[in-house]
Amino acid sequence: MVDYKLLEALATIMECGGFERAGEALGLSQSAISQRIRALEIRLGQPVLVRHPALAPTPAGQRLLNHLQQVRLLERDLATTLPTLETASPRLRIALNADSLATWWAASIGDYCRQAGVLLDLVVEDQDVGLKRLRDGDVAACLCASSQPIAGARCVPLGQMTYLPLATPAYIDRFFFDGLGEAAFRQAPAIVYGPHDQLQHRFLAHCGYHGPFPYHLCPSSEGFVRLARAGLGYGMIPRMQAAAQLAGGELASIAPGQALEVPLYWHFWRHSGNLLAGLTTHLEAVELT
């Protein structure tokens, strides 16, 4: 039999990013948390965590974390049929991209979360790498750009987000007065969300440019727009996020008529109970505009 106290220790370590903070979250000492992991590893006969160079679950640890995610959700279903069974409010740990969180996500899932009484634990990840969180057992579901489901999970297309290369009119006059050319791209600072963000590279490749370019790194969707509005650079911004600035003339496209369409896919474990199934049905009805 699986000792779920040991699995909770493993999951909390991964969610908190370390043994000390996991102990604080569970009301245990760091030594007690370490002992639980050691007991789990002795029972399995193999390690469940890799501690160096970065904390990460082993393949066995991933399978255990995936199992625990599904058990947590199934227990919620059990409580609906057995009201005397005491359970805490369900908490869904979900990985999603920052642009979705800054635009359509909250308004789209608010009603469902209130009706289902669900709490959210959101992990913001770049849309190209969020699926790794699900594979590692760190989240119960993820929203990302990958259309390839992982073993044991389902993948549902939700639509796509439209990105435009935006900057202030003054910035465009300064750097792109002669159009989109190699000289302009080599000099004009861009804004990139993070090291995994490839939208800027895709746009430049679409324009026929594959060389180096200067850029700011800004791992904040709201901060990204603020940098563009301040004239510090141009960047790929969701059309829905910049609608007001576009309408008011504060931002404009450096390449009118050009856009990048980024698909969004919802990934979740197949046998995760009614809560995730209901949320999935709810998300499928959302229109991304």
Automatic annotation (TrEMBL):
Keyword Glycoprotein included in the entry's annotation: no
Superkingdom of this protein's organism: Bacteria
Domain HTH lysR-type: from-to ranges: 2-58
Coiled coil: none
UniProt KW keywords: DNA-binding, Transcription, Transcription regulation
Entries under Gene3D superfamilies matching the protein: 3.40.190.290, Winged helix-like DNA-binding domain superfamily/Winged helix DNA-binding domain
Family named by the database record: Belongs to the LysR transcriptional regulatory family.
Name of the protein this chain belongs to: LysR family transcriptional regulator, chromosome initiation inhibitor
Entry GO MF terms: DNA binding; DNA-binding transcription factor activity
Pfam families attached to this UniProt entry: HTH_1, LysR_substrate
InterPro entries: ArgP, LTTR, LysR_HTH_N, LysR_subst-bd, WH-like_DNA-bd_sf, WH_DNA-bd_sf
